[in-house]
Automatic annotation (TrEMBL):
Alphabetized GO MF terms: ATP binding
Domain of life: Bacteria
PROSITE patterns to which the protein is assigned, alphabetical: ABC_TRANSPORTER_1, ABC_TRANSPORTER_2
Official protein name in the record: ATP-binding cassette domain-containing protein
Keywords per UniProt: ATP-binding, Nucleotide-binding, Transport
Domain ABC transporter intervals: 2-240
The keyword Nucleotide-binding belongs to this UniProt entry's keyword annotation: yes
Length: 256
C-alpha cells in the first residue's frame, strides 16, 4: 500500500529525519519504534503532509485511487486517518466526543441517527460507556480522550490509520482490549496500520514489519520475525535483548 524510498523531513531549515525507506502492504501493521527524539512523530507528520519533505519514491496505492505523489512541500494521504500523540490537542474543546467522532463520517453522508449509532459502536469498541457521547474533552481523563481519538479514527473504517502511541495512556487491560480490536478490524475489513510505539510487547504481538529509527535515521527495517530472531544491527539486538530481559515480549499475545 505504501512504498517509500529516502524520505527526509525538515523543520525550520533543519533536516530532522534523513532518508528513511520502508514499505507496508495492505492489511499489514508497521510498527515504528526508537528512543525518545529518534524522529518517529516527525516521520508520521511528514507522511501526513504536516512538515516539509523530500523523497526519492513515494507510492501510495489505495482502492479508491492509484496514485504516486510528487510534491516537496508535503505529502498527505487520502483515505487515511491520523491519531496524534496528544489527544486533548486533537479534540475540539467545544464539541462533545460524540460530535467529534461523527465528524469523521462526514464523507459518508449518513443520516444523523445512523451516524450516532456508528459513533456509539465506536465508543463501545474502545471501552467507553455510551454516556461519553455527550461529554466535552475537558470532562474526561487523558486515557479516555485518547480512546475517543481512537474511536474517531476507527469509526470511519479507513484504509490506513496512522497512530502515534495509541495505547500509551491506558492501563494494561484496556490496552489489550483495544489492541485486539485493532487486530480484528485489520483482519475483517483490511485496515492497514502504521503505529508509533515504545511498547515492544505490542510490536511483537501485532506488527508485521518493524522500522527502528535512531537519531533521525533509519537503523533497521525488517519483518517482525527477523527483527526479533535476527536483529539487523547491534543497537536493534540490544533493544530486543533488553525487552526479553524485562519480559516485555510475551505481554500481549495476538488473537488467533
Ligand atoms: N517542529 C520542529 N522544529 C524543530 N525541531 C523539531 C520539531 N519537531 C521535532 N523536532 C525535533 O526532532 C527530533 C525528533 O522529534 P520527534 O518528535 O519526531 O521524536 P520522537 O521519536 O517522536 O520522540 P518521542 O518518543 O519522545 O515522542 C527531536 O530532537 C525534536 O526536538
Amino acid at each position: 500500500m505504501l512504498n517509500i524510498a529516502k524520505l527526509s523531513v525538515s523543520a525550520a531549515g533543519r533536516t530532522l529525519l534523513h532518508e528513511v525507506s520502508f514499505s507496508v502492504a495492505a492489511s499489514e501493521m508497521l510498527c515504528v519504534i526508537g528512543e525518545s527524539g529518534a524522529g518517529k512523530s516527525t516521520l508520521l507528520k511528514g507522511l501526513m503532509g504536516l512538515m516539509p519533505c523530500r523523497y526519492e519514491r513515494f507510492e501510495h496505492r489505495s482502492s479508491a485511487e492509484e496514485s504516486a505523489f510528487a510534491t516537496t512541500s508535503g505529502l498527505g494521504l487520502p483515505a487515511c486517518r491520523y491519531v496524534m500523540q496528544d489527544p486533548l490537542a486533537a479534540l475540539n474543546p467545544k464539541r462533545s466526543l460524540g460530535q467529534s467522532i461523527c465528524e469523521s463520517l462526514y464523507t459518508q453522508k449518513l443520516p444523523a441517527p445512523e451516524q450516532r449509532n456508528r459513533a456509539l459502536s465506536a465508543l463501545e469498541a474502545v471501552e467507553l460507556p455510551v454516556e461519553f457521547y455527550d461529554r466535552l474533552p475537558k470532562e474526561v481523563s487523558l486515557g479516555q480522550a485518547q480512546r475517543a481519538c481512537l474511536a474517531r479514527a476507527l469509526v470511519a473504517e479507513p484504509e490506513l490509520i496512522i497512530f502515534d502511541e495509541p495505547l500509551s495512556a491506558l492501563d494494561a487491560l484496556v490496552q489489550k482490549k483495544i489492541a485486539l480490536k485493532m487486530d480484528q478490524l485489520r483482519r475483517e475489513i483490511g485496515i492497514t496500520y502504521i503505529v508509533v510505539t515504545h511498547d515492544l510487547g505490542f510490536a511483537a504481538a501485532y506488527a508485521d514489519r518493524i522500522l527502528l529509527l535512531r537519531n533521525g535515521r533509519m537503523e533497521t527495517f525488517q519483518d517482525k520475525g527477523d527483527f526479533f530472531a535476527n536483529p539487523a544491527s547491534a543497537y536493534a539486538s540490544d533493544l530486543v535483548g533488553a525487552a526479553q530481559t524485562l519480559g516485555a515480549l510475551n505481554r500481549m499475545e495476538a488473537a488467533e
